[in-house]
Amino acid sequence: MAGKGTEKAKGKLKEAAGKVTGDKRLETEGKTDQMKGKAREAGEAASERAKGVGDSLNPEK
User: Fold this and answer.
1) Cα angle 26-32-43, degrees, rounded to a multiple of 5
2) Dihedral through CA 26, CA 28, CA 33, CA 38, nearest 10?
3) Can you tell me the distance from the alpha carbon of 33 to that of 39, in angstroms, rounded to the nearest whole number?
4) Where is pLDDT greater, at 61 or 11?
5) Distances (CA, A) of 23 to 9, 14, 31, 35
6) What are 3-52's pLDDT values in tens digits?
């Protein structure tokens, strides 16, 4: 799996390239990639929090 923030960084590059070249489709793709990266990070954070809660409720760990 790629490093954290890779998708967001790729999205920023696409968005910037789209703005420079006037390519609205590429710009929109970049924004979409950034949002996907943010959503993935939020999901991973929620998963980690849930795991922590589960661990704290399990006295055997």
Assistant:
1) 155
2) 150
3) 10
4) 11
5) 18, 10, 13, 19
6) 778 999 999 999 999 999 999 999 999 999 999 999 999 999 998 888 87
